[in-house]
Structure formats: C-alpha cells, structure tokens
Amino acid sequence: MATPRTPSPSAEPPPLAEAAEAGDLRSDVPPAELAQYCLHALTAAAALTSQTAVARLVAVTLDGLRPVP
Predict the structure, then answer these.
(1) Crossing angle, helix 51-65 and helix 31-43, to 10 degrees?
(2) Helix H segments across the chain?
C-alpha cells in the first residue's frame, strides 16, 4: 500500500493518472473515466437547494475517488 503524499500548499495537484499511480486515487478505473465521473457528479450540485446537500454530494464524489482497499 502506498504512503499518502502530503503536497505543499503551493503545489498544483498531480494529473489523475499520476495520482492513481501514486496510490492517491483508485487505480481500477481509468483516469479519464474518473474525470468524467467527477464532472457529471459535481454538475448535479447546481440543482441542489442547500449547502448541506452540496457538501454531501462532494463527500460522496470524493469517496468514489479513494483507492480501493
């Protein structure tokens, strides 16, 4: 299991493929599919009526990106 990296505050996030290779994202789904998943999931936030609902959607989306144990 890869040790999570702690990026410096000014560091730009790595591309999805690099993050998956580093073990920071799930690697069982191609990075392009993960990008589409995020885009479509978070586009749904525009239709939500509360900040609480948006926070839940973001949490669920992030959970979907985490590496599979």
Answers:
(1) 170
(2) 16-21, 31-43, 51-65
- The predicted structure's pLDDT at residue 63: 93
Here the tokens at position 53 are 């609902």
Whole-angstrom Cα distance, residue 64 to residue 4?
A: 17
Element (H, E) at 5: none
Half-sphere exposure of 8 (CA within 13 A, CB side): 2
Burial of 20 by CB count in 10 Å (0-12 exposed, 13-18 middle, 19+ buried)? buried
Q: Quick check: pTM over 0.70?
A: no
Question: What's the whole-number mean pLDDT along residues 14-28?
Answer: 85
55 φψ region: left (φ > 0), alpha (ψ -120 to 50), beta (else): alpha
